[in-house]
Structure formats: structure tokens, C-alpha cells
């Protein structure tokens, strides 16, 4: 898909853009490399991130005479570091010799501190605040923890079990920064509104000049989903206000008006077309406002789309979009973040090539994120073909060296890494040895995905056997290498798209079925008749979640109210409801597993807790657990819940309802969608009730399906669900075959007798 953007800029900006184009350089790169001003004095701030927030899922287990592990951390382009500390939580072996053992803290391979390991602290949790010199910290950084341990003054086993140290992922990196004042230049986008170097959750306010109409909301969805896609794992929220500029920080301002507008003291000039302007926040000179404006809805949506798809070529403080070519229609399941299901996928497309190469005896797993289409039909499928091409350093002698394959921390298969003496036809294989002394190999395996979630991780770990040479001869020569060829492939083309619905689990994980088309062209949002900031917050945050799933902005979503719902009958519907402001709750009451009428709450209950394992079953009967109880009660507290059901307007289309008795209750709904460590359960089933950080999911009848199976597969699957019909058809088939054989033999007998 290609979009072409034409913009009017000042002559100077246009000249710069032309030169950048001739040189094949993006204005974004040029601007980001050259901050326009020195750090602002007296405006320092600080923040902290745990190692877990920096991507370390588990503790660092350091073993052997020398071992290390690391995490990356980056500094925003509009900040400079003035100070940093590492609050280290760790423990170490009681067997270590204090005078020979230590933990080194390194930043970008420079030693920031060396921690002794005294006997009196051994075996119990320790905490130490380490000062990190600011000059060691650059834009992109690697924090490495190195353990050096010894348990004897004489000969020792370099991999002895007593040589260990453990670094908790609760260890905290604290950073003090001073802001850099950036110039008003659209070439910096998405800076300063989003910086990939910042690992914290994104919170970006949206300011609407007036109460937004549906077109303005559609433009806002394009922007919030774009920022949600950029935020990725960080998560993003979008607080909304009407005509109020935030007192601090950055914000997106949307203006739909044919005339000049005053937004909280900011004079927005009369638009001459789809216009984008970047200005300083009048309430905070360090903050920026991106003003997206247009004379009508078409222009406003065009300006928003230009930001989401054309930001790399923008330049200057203000531009007017002359032309934005129509976007090619999206195809189902072509979301950039999703694993393609129409062709084999190279592993090199899914991960940085540098991460496919490791070295050392125990180098850790190579992790490859897989975002699977959530509706892959895995009934009686053997698994996804994984064709691995890999290289490794063959040892002279070994018996247990292997390449381990896992999925979501579940072991799948072990493939041996033969030593030179165990290669069989060793001479021919050794002739294939490459210059780096690695031997290329290939293997194909079937990777079962029946229990895999839409967001999964493929893990490949080279494990080398350590051969004991004898006392005082055990030396680790850390020259072992392993590499996964980027041309290795994963192929899900054999799977068809078919899933039992409703299933709030796939909505929570991947935004399905709305994200089936990345631009949401077959989706519509039904807003309450009268909505405020809380409803807008929820709407924009959900759109951001969709963008996070697909990696693409929602450029084609429709927004309507209940009175116009028939105009979007052929789409999947996301319905937002607060209080009595959503007429569809009464119109569709018979389809809902829950209703709220003021303080009156009514819920249909099932025996879900006993059938957790069947949530993702493709078997309709296995998923049917009709409501076997109902409860009604009066409560003045906020009640928040999700519900999924088939659209009453068109068979095969889905409705997901996010409802709360009070507007502020929608914040709990969006919070559970973003998730976090405080949530022990996630949204599942057909009804999910949210009470603070507690999520209770219920399952009712699953009555419809989304997707399509091939004729043979469909018949085979249907027969497996209905044993009686299968027996009848089998009997009829045998009877017909018997008759045919009888008639054939009789005819042959007549010919012989004649």
C-alpha cells in the first residue's frame, strides 16, 4: 500500500525537504540528530524503571566463574541525563571467596561500580544503591551485570554449583534528566509526543476545540491508533478534554471549523485546507501542541491520515496538505504486526538479525515474538511447519549438546548438535565448515499452536555440553557460537480462519474481530447519545489498543449513534455505554447476558469456573454452557462489564459491548485492557465483570462462527460433532457400496453365463 503526500511549506522548509529527498535522507533523522537548544536549566525531573519494565521477564541467574546478563535502556531525544543510580537487589552464594568475587555494574561496557561480596551478606537478599556517572550514559545504552566468582584458591570447577549470583528484576534504575527545548518542526514527528527510547506507558492528551462530531472522532481514532501502534508493549492512554489545553506537557488539538477558532487562548487561524501545525504549549514552554485542523470533516480526516502515514516527509512548523492519494483497500489478516497467513514467513522478518547470533556455552534463549491471527482453526492439525536453518560450533567431543525449541516457555523439541566425533560422515560434513568454524544444519519440525495465545514467543536456545577434563584442567574457552539463519521459515498457510464466537479473550489479546482488517474498514463504534470526557477517554484508548495489535492506524473506522446503527449493519460493532445514554441496551436487551438500569443490576451466570479449558475450543458443543442461574441486585456503586454476542443486525457479525453504570467506570475497563501485574485474570468468555483489579469471566452459549472452512474440512468437522449422523452416513455409504458391488458381480455373472 502506498500513499503520496503533497504539502505547502515555507520556501526554506521546502528547500530542506528537497535536499533531503535528493540525498535519500529523511528530515526526521536530520532533525533528531541536532537538538535545537541546550538543556533547560532549573527544569530537572526524574523517573525510575525496574529491570522488569526494561524487558527482563525473570531474574538474572549468573553462574560460573564469569557470567553476565544485560538489559537495554534509552534516553529520550529531548532529554539529557544529569544523574543516575541503580538500586540493585541481589543475592549470592555462601561458598564464594570474598577477596576474589565481585559483581560489576557496567554501562556501555564501561565499569560504573564494582560490588564486593562479603561473607556476612552471603545467602540472604542484599540491596545496594550504585551511582552511575552521567557521562557514561548516551542516547542508547546497555546496562550489564557481570558476576566473577571463585570458591577456592586452588584448582576449581569453572561451572561448579556453588558459583552463583542472582539479580532480581525488581532492581530499579533511577534517572535524573534535564529537558532539551526542541524547535517547532513537523520533521520531528512522532517526537515529542512519542519517543521509542522511552519505555514508560504513553499518556497523550487529546483536546477537542468543541464537542466533537462523528467525523472528528474518526479523525481522532486515526491518530490515537497510530500512537497506540507506536507505543506497542508500553500501552497508551489518551485523556480527553473539551477546549482546555493541559497545564503541562504535550497534547493533540483537533479543530473542525471553516473559521478561525480560539482554543483556550490559542488563536487557530482560518484553515485553507487540511492543516497541521506544531507550536509550543502556552502553559508550558517545554511542551508542544500538534494542531490538526480542517474546514470540514473530509479535510480533518485527511489531515489526521497525513500525520499517521505521511509524517516522515513533513517539514516546517505548519503545512497544508494539497493532496493525499486514496489508500488501497486492506486485505483480511494483512496487519503489519500479524504473522502472515498467506505465505511462509522468514524469521529474519520477525526479529533483529543481530539477535539471531549468540555465543558462549549457555548464551540464553533467542526470543522471537509471534503475533498469530487469533482465529486459526487448529482442530486436528498436527502443527505449524518450522523449517530451521542454523549453524553451530561443533565440539571435539560431546554427548548432550543440543538446540532446544520452545513456545511460550513450554518445551517443544530438542535437536542434537553432534560433536566432530559423532558426525558420522565427518569428512564431508566438516568440508561444509564455514570461516567462523560453524557447521550449517537444517531441521524441520511441527510446532503445535493449539495452546498458543495470539501473542506468543518462539524460543531457540543453544545448549553446549561441558566436558570435564580433570582436576586443574577444566578451562572454559568461550568460543562456542550458534546462529539461526534468517531464511528459516514458519508456515501457517495450512491453517484456515474459523473461530467460535463470542470470545472476549481474542478481543482482549488482539482486538478481534475488529482488527481482522487493519484499517478497521469493517468496524463501527456506536457512541452514547450524550458523551463526555470519560467516554472519549475509553474510545481513544480502545482505538490505541487496536493500533497496538495491528501496527496500523484505524483510517477507515466509522462512528455512529444508536439511531443510525442500521447504516452500519454489515459491520462489526463496538458499543460504548454509560448510564442510560445508550438506547441499544434496551433495544437489544434479549441478547445481553447482563443489564443495568440505574441502581438495578441483573446478570445471567454460568458454571464457567469448571470449564476454563474450553474457552478456546473449536468445538461448539464443548463451549456451550448455558446460564444456569441469574442474580439481580441494587447497588449505587459503579458496575463495569464487557459482553460479546452476535449482531442482531446481520448474522456472522459480532458486537462487543463495554458498559458502565457511571462514566468514570469506563476507566476500569480500559485499564484492564492495557493490563499489568496487578491483574491476575484477563477478559475471557462472553461476559466479563470488572471490579477494581478483579476480573470475573462467564461463558454462555456460543451460537455463531466467524470465518470459513473448506467443504471437506467443514463436513469432516461437522460429522465429528454429531456421532449419530456419522453412523447413519457410514451405514448408508456401506449399503450403497454393497449394492454397487452386488450389481457389478451379478452383471459379470450374466455375461459369463451368456
Which helices and strands occur, and which strands form pairs?
Blueprint: E1 5-8, H1 11-23, H2 27-33, E2 45-50, E3 60-63, E4 66-74, E5 79-92, E6 102-107, E7 110-116, E8 126-132, E9 140-148, E10 164-167, E11 172-179, E12 202-203, E13 206-208, H3 214-231, E14 236-237, E15 240-242, E16 251-256, E17 261-263, E18 266-268, E19 275-281, E20 284-294, H4 297-310, E21 318-324, E22 345-346, E23 357-359, E24 366-371, E25 376-377, E26 384-392, E27 402-407, E28 410-416, H5 426-430, E29 439-447, E30 455-463, E31 481-484, E32 489-490, E33 496-501, H6 504-510, E34 523-526, H7 533-550, E35 558-560, E36 572-578, H8 584-587, E37 594-597, E38 600-605, H9 620-623, E39 629-634, E40 640-646, E41 654-660, H10 666-674, E42 687-691, E43 694-698, E44 704-707, H11 711-721, H12 723-753
Parallel strand pairs: 12-14, 13-15, 13-16, 16-20, 34-35, 34-36, 36-41
Antiparallel strand pairs: 1-21, 2-11, 3-10, 4-9, 5-8, 5-10, 5-11, 6-7, 6-9, 17-18, 19-20, 19-21, 22-32, 23-31, 24-30, 25-33, 26-29, 26-31, 26-32, 27-28, 27-30, 33-44, 37-38, 38-39, 40-41, 40-42, 42-43
